[in-house]
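Let's practice the habit of predicting before peeking. Look at the sequence and jot down your guess about where helices and strands might fall. Then scroll down.
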Amino acid sequence: MTLDANIPQVADPKASIAEERKAPSFPVRELTYWLDGDKKVTELKEQIMLELERDPLWRVSDHPNLTLAETRERAMKKIRRLADQATSRPLEETMVRMSIISVVDPGFWTRFGVHFGLFFGALQGQASPAQLAYWMEKGAFTMQGVTGCFGMTELGHGSNVAGLETIATFDPNTDEFIVHSPTITATKWWIGGAAHTATHCAVYAQLLVGGKRYGTKTFVVQLRDTQTFELMPGVNIGDLGKKMGRDQIDNGWIRFTHVRIPRSHMLMKHTKVMRSGEVIEPPLAQLAYGALIQGRVSMVGDSANVAKRALTIATRYASVRRQFSDGTPGALESKLIDYPIHQHRLLPLMAQTFAMIFAAREMNTSYMQLMSQLNELGDSKGAAVDAAIKNLKETHATSAGLKAFCTWMCLNIIDQCRQSLGGHGYSAYTGLSQAYSDFAVHCTWEGDNTILTLQCGRYLVATALDALKGQPLPENLAYLKDAIKSGMVLETKPFSGKSAAEVSSLAALKAAWSSVAANAIVNAVRDFKAGVAKGLSKDNAYEFSSASRLHAARMHTYTYLLHRFVAQVEQSPAALRPILTLLAQLFGAHSAVQHSGEFLQAGFYSGAQIEALKVFVNDACAQIRKDAVPLTDAFDYSDYIINSPLGRYDGDVYEKYFELVTSLNPQKPVPYFDSLIRPLLERTNESQPGPELEIDQE
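Done guessing? Here is the structure:
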């Protein structure tokens, strides 16, 4: 039989993706080592990925079909397995393992992290050395005798930690604190691990001594008897049930009714309450919040890691999926990735992901330096403390802005990648619908993104005002120097270049974004001053300028990301520099086109130059398209980690997709056929006759 020449040929998807790997413009393995930090980290990652893949307990392909109870039980089995491993292996290995697990099973990562990251992290950051030693002996580190949760959020309060309603009142007669939830809104809410797992909780409550409030402090409260697991007297706990995502974590609510704890269960690294009732507060109370930055820093890295997985799925699928042809009889249909609009759809997201990878790297370094600086303070005073406070404020603001910006960016990347899969993106088995549901919470926990962005904006305004008084600008705000010199009046300095190559150079883009960020901060300062001129208090003036503060923080974060991206490009190996330079240019140029009005308002680019940027974006997407699959290969996620038939390395998407769906959903008799479907099909439309009426007989 001969085939009709007019029938389009069907391409082999495995051959289609193999074509993409024939001639990358860069050494793929070398980029993997650069992204991971070095060859040893890459090899450790690959070892861990293989261990997880071969462990039946870590099966992930059936996650969509598990019930809530099954999901939680499997997560608890993993915790039991990993608890010993996490505390007995080197810290570096554990950190790498957890970064991989956060992509494989984010719900489990949360449940595990509640104890080791939040509860034990609170002990490390807030407990005195003697208290930390006590809780270590109790088993808080090894999860032997103590499983912890983190009780900050309340039904009525989240971002406003200073407004928490739970009260811890000191009783000098018994040398105890009485922890109490005075209102329904004081109920601790969304507490991971509370519903089923935790024996203890790091409770954030208002310290009340002698009728005076001393602000929110941290107290360790026992929730359950460690032998019987019965609730302790005065403790009520409930399950919050099904959520949008991350069902592996047993979120619950907690109410305290006059629960007594020893005075020593208040964590006293900073504020101390003596037996006499004397309260000794640290000279700089904000030092206590340094440890709370860690969660935000980790979420910048998590955003990059999750985005890498989403882009791998979407890019590989776009390289094997074919739709439409040029009309030539019998011609192969075109790959999605060959359509310019699809390149515009995915490749700017690729550039954003690389920007997040490098920002996470620098943010983590900054955080480690800050914690080292804070730990070395001791009883220091003067310049050392001033320097530490300045660094703390800068790191807090930067981490707040980046946490918000990167989690928003990653959530958008997941959804855009999901949509790019067409109808298959809606399937629970292709990997991105659940990824979206699981990741969305990042935009809310560890600080609502809008609130964190406003905090970053407040820092920007305050720093600019301090600079006007003669204080030095931090390095990442050096672009404000001219504005400070002119008294916050920016002169328009139009860029002179005209060609696409000129307007898209890294030097031009850095200057352009610096100009836009400076202009946004100048406007925020102007609005703040206008609020003060109206007679508003300082805090109300900040609220008056909240819209411009939010905008300034967003423009500053774009600028920060680009500057950090360029810095990493300059440090990269020579063989990687061309592709990384192109990605950095695409990030800066595409973002500028999306916010073109800002550049016109700042007077840096003209309308014609914005058009030249658009030309560059088109060309850059076409160039990067040739390396799209090799770039995702450099992320070095195994098929197990990708956990999507559409993102397979070998491109065999249709066979594996069909196998997965049919294996997890075998044909069975419809259980409600006889009770519902048959009666529906066999019903009649005949109406029953009513009673015979006398009047009809006349």
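How did you do? The mean pLDDT is 92.
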